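Question (not urgent): is this output format expected?
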Amino acid sequence: MGSLHRASKTLKSLRHQLLLQATQQFDSSSRLSGSSDYRLLLARALCSHPRQNAKEAVDLTQYPPERIRNFSIIAHVDHGKSTLADRLLELTGTIKRGHGQPQYLDKLQVERERGITNLQGSSLDGSNEPQPFLLNLIDTPGHVDFSYEVSRSLAACQGALLVVDAAQGVQAQTVANFYLAFESNLTIIPVINKIDQPTADPDRIKDQLKSMFDLEPSDCLLTSAKTGQGLEHVLPAVIERIPPPPGEGSGLLRMLLLDSYYDEYKGVICHVAVVDGMLRKGDKISAAATGQTYDVLDVGFMHPELTQTGVLLTGQVGYVVTGMRSTKEARIGDTLFHAKTIVKPLPGFKAARHMVFSGLFPADGSDFEALNHAIERLTCNDASVSVTKESSTALGLGFRCGFLGLLHMDVFHQRLEQEYGTHIISTVPTVPYIFEYSDGRVEVQNPAALPSNSKQRVTASWEPTVLATIIIPSEV
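Got this back:
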């Protein structure tokens, strides 16, 4: 009896500590948001069911499609989208305020250094009295090299926050990302950020957004993600303006594969959006593109780390572990569905197009196997890099790699050095050329591969071009 009494007392003490912590988080969030309409769902759950480290499965059945909002943040680089994502995560209690790592969704050192955010997602618990909402936030990169990742994010969303710097105004990727979202028929919420800057001119930015994108000035939200000013209006706008995800909950399962990465312990982890039907742990699913069948070993959502739920319902965005051994099996834009069912595949994405090619060689020829291992490991999490082995008379054995752009190439090089300690020599980047002979065409990615003693005469040569729109200020 004494042991039971002590155990009961310990549980009561733990419950009290959890409630106190949740209350403190709620008070902090309320002060930041300036509104009591947004309560921490986690705090409410702790009040009735105290749990340690949130290991208990989250019940997603309380979120029907009409109470789900899938949205993205799009912006030009350094306009504050990662900081805004941090504040939204804090507002909903997904992470603690002052968590110690700015740009929480930027996992890699090189991403934080260069302002790059690869496809990252998180599910937020937002409560709009009297019922809670599930808000799925997918952050996006701002650099032009990663525009295809923006399209992956937008495919899972019904709306987007278009973040514009209150001083810099509309810039190149603002235009590009707006039209990506516009072509996807997303609801666009303009957010003028960094209004705390001395050079901020929100009225001028409103006029820009009206003249270029026909976005009404009254629809613009004025915020400062740094100070928290105006953030209390962002989540209500997401819930009120962005429509819920479409889909048939009682229909056959169809999931859109958004992204994948390799984990040493779990294997390939796929990020998916459930368009129709329901997925449960233990189901058998097939991939439309490859025809392969897999067992669902784990399923859940990002909150912001992987959180097991055992189920994903229509309209929800989460992760699936299936035992895939390589990300090459997880083709971005593929449709996943229950095995032995017949469904119409979802429209996929455009394949990543390599724009720049460069040779990578070990600084020391004896380090070839180490470089080979490092590239294999790194490409597990970056399927947008093409790799083929090549040999150079001057540099020896190496690799010919295709990248999305110069920045993508620099980031890949930097990750090889930072994460694997490799020392590399890279050749001058080139673009692919097409040479036309009398009997056909040959694509050349490496100038050394161009036949020098060919008896056939080159009748034409082709190089990549781009149709560009250049926007300049009316006054300089």
